[in-house]
Write a structure and sequence with these properties.
The protein is α+β, with helices and mostly antiparallel strands and 330 residues long. It folds into two domains: 118 residues, Chitobiase, domain 2 (2-Layer Sandwich), CATH 3.30.379; 171 residues, Mog1/PsbP, alpha/beta/alpha sandwich (Protein Transport Mog1p, Chain A), CATH 3.40.1000.10. It has eight helices and 15 strands.
Length: 330
């Protein structure tokens, strides 16, 4: 009987602990908002003044690598008095607090889940402006990482199922079922999706390790590589035409990390080369060259879009999210 009583006490204690844990866990609503739409919480007066200008200079600045100016984020401003309830559930929030110590804080899942909230504070407008300027890269990175994850989550709802990339290149790449593999030969893949006015495209292939070196001629080497691949694999609409890097637009080259491996990120514009009739085709591209030293190679992932007469930010963001989903299979 004593043993039975002891077991009953232990069982009751376990249930009590579980109930207590449940009561301490906050139940957060699901966050909302379109991809790359940012809520800025700040007084109307400050939004119209220098503080608002500093915010827009950083978070609504033109995105690199697009043929026309499109903002990094689409911003909606709210005064603090109405920032509650559903209005506080946007996935990305920048909150300005005045009459407080100059600081920057980054919070996760504060009012909803998933969510990133960046709070910038200062006792004066100038202190707030200084915090925004000094932490611009951190602020952008926090919001962009959140949006990449959300885009990848949405992509994961309907994935294209193929083992071809795994079998030939030893990688996994998550892209929507709306895409199709248009070309698959000798370790080169061209994956395509029809969009309203054109196509979204992905290229995947590998190079011997050390083909692309980080030196003074890096940008020129990447351009030469792209042009050679375009000539070999991406034909234009008329005989003898093919995709090249646009000569009049210098690409942006950055250092980054993909699946824990060092990589080069290049953003720029492409067009079509032909010796005869002029072809009016062009668009943006994003290219990653990943150092895969373990397999003695550099893996190249590229996304490019052909979408004339429409904005291209969201097409390119989807492509970036897809390329950044790559994992190297051991």
């Amino acid at each position: 009987m004593k043993n039975i009583a002891w077991l009953f006490i232990c069982f009751a204690c376990v249930l009590s602990c579980k109930d207590q844990n449940k009561s301490n866990t906050r139940i957060l609503p699901e966050s909302s908002g379109k991809i790359n739409n940012l809520t800025v919480v700040v007084d109307n007066e400050k939004w119209e003044g220098q503080v608002g200008e500093a915010i827009r200079d950083v978070l609504a600045s033109p995105l690199d690598g697009l043929p026309q100016d499109e903002p990094l984020f689409t911003i909606s401003q709210l005064p603090p008095a109405v920032f509650s309830g559903f209005a506080a559930q946007n996935r990305t929030v920048l909150k300005i607090e005045t009459n407080a110590q100059a600081d920057l804080k980054i919070g996760t899942n504060v009012f909803a889940r998933p969510q990133k909230v960046v709070v910038v504070s200062g006792k004066t407008d100038q202190e707030v402006i200084d915090q925004i300027g000094q932490n611009a890269k951190r602020i952008i990175a926090a919001f962009k990482q959140t949006e990449i994850k959300e885009q990848q989550r949405r992509i994961g709802l309907s994935l294209h199922k193929t083992n071809a990339l795994k079998d030939q290149l030893g990688i996994s790449l998550k892209f929507p079922s709306a895409y199709r593999i248009g070309v698959e030969k000798e370790g080169f893949f061209w994956i395509r999706k029809d969009i309203t006015t054109g196509t979204s495209n992905i290229m995947v292939y590998e190079l011997p390790y050390g083909t692309i070196k980080r030196n003074d001629s890096l940008a020129g080497t990447i351009i030469a590589l792209r042009d050679s691949i375009g000539k070999a694999h991406i034909p234009g609409p008329i005989d003898g035409s093919y995709m090249i890097t646009e000569e009049a637009y210098a690409p942006f080259v950055f250092e980054t990390t993909i699946d824990g491996k060092p990589a080069l990120e290049t953003k720029g514009l492409w067009d079509v080369k032909t010796e005869g009739k002029k072809v009016f085709m062009s668009g943006p591209f994003i290219n990653y060259i990943i150092d895969d030293k373990a397999n003695n190679r550099q893996l190249v992932l590229e996304g490019f879009a052909f979408a004339p007469s429409v904005e291209k930010r969201e097409y390119m963001f989807e492509l970036e999210a897809i390329l950044r989903s790559v994992t190297f299979i051991k």
